[in-house]
């Protein structure tokens, strides 16, 4: 199919370009998994974000005509999405999470965690009357999970921990964007390492983590779109649990007595269940789709800590 500048001759309106983009994406068999799951939604996201249009745009505005410069801009993005197989969020340097925009580039994974639904629900009913004054976003990437949680728990301070200095630079951009300078900080850390082990170590009511969890088999067969994301944020060993084991074995040391661990393991949840069949993980049902998120209260993190440690060592 011809995607030269002349290919959009005759197209005039917002609706025209959404329809054209959807047709192009369908014919080229793109993979969708970074904010949309079909060609039409991807086309709508591309056109709306390229033109800085609000998601609640009245239908009659779909008949608005694009300027020549806008046509060229949208056409170029469509061509890039097809030829480079680069996810849309990287093309427009923006991804949406919990209803708000976050800056992203190829230094970080694109936000898409179903943890967002639990944040919007304030982790109820599990959290109960627990007052969240301090929370940890472990393996924070662009910071969207921790910053979204900080906006829901508006009295809480949040620590954003990541081993990648590049990712933390992106997280700081998002701290600025959401004006959370007084309640959010970035810390470079290999998992919990930078938090220390002294009696003055921090205690969190919430530790939320979306670590790497893609197993070796899936890593060998990922769609081209995912190869643009940093591998350090995806790969997690043979069974996808390399990081989850460490987090489970360590979280109890940093949780308040009434705190909770929220850990995403994605498709590796089946391997985790087989590894720890005796642990009463809570797997919340998600109305908006997704799976593989466990919740565990501090009391159980302590109760099973030695189990977690022993099987972490046996796997090393």
How do the strands and helices of this protein lay out in sequence?
Blueprint lengths: L13 H14 L11 H12 L17 H16 L4 H5 L2 E3 L2 E3 L12 H6 L13 E5 L5 H9 L4 E6 L2 H13 L6 E5 L15 E6 L6 H4 L22 H9 L4 E10 L4 H7 L17 E5 H6 L1 H11 L1
Parallel strand pairs: 3-4, 3-6, 4-5, 6-7
Antiparallel strand pairs: 1-2, 7-8
Helix pairs in contact: 1-2, 1-3, 2-3, 9-12
In short, what is this structure?
This protein has twelve helices and eight strands. It is of the alpha/beta class and 316 residues long.
How would you describe the overall organization of this protein?
Helix 2 crosses helix 3. This protein is an alpha/beta fold. It contains twelve helices and eight strands. The chain is elongated. Strand 4 (157-162), helix 7 and strand 5 form a beta-alpha-beta unit. The strands form two sheets. It has a six-stranded mixed sheet with strand order 5-4-3-6-7-8, sandwiched between helices. Strands 1-2 form a two-stranded antiparallel sheet. The model has no long low-confidence stretch (mean pLDDT 93).
Main sheet: which strands, in order across? 5-4-3-6-7-8
Give a count of the beta strands, DSSP E runs of length 2 or more: 8
Distance between the termini: 51 Å
Helix content: 25-40%
Order of helices and strands: HHHHEEHEHEHEEHHEHEHH
Beta fraction: 5-15%
Taking pLDDT < 50 over at least 5 consecutive residues as the criterion, the unreliable ranges are none
* Count of DSSP-assigned helices: 12
Shape: elongated
Biggest beta sheet summary: 6 strands, mixed
Helix and strand content put the structural class at: alpha/beta
Cα radius of gyration in angstroms: 21 Å
Mean pLDDT value: 93
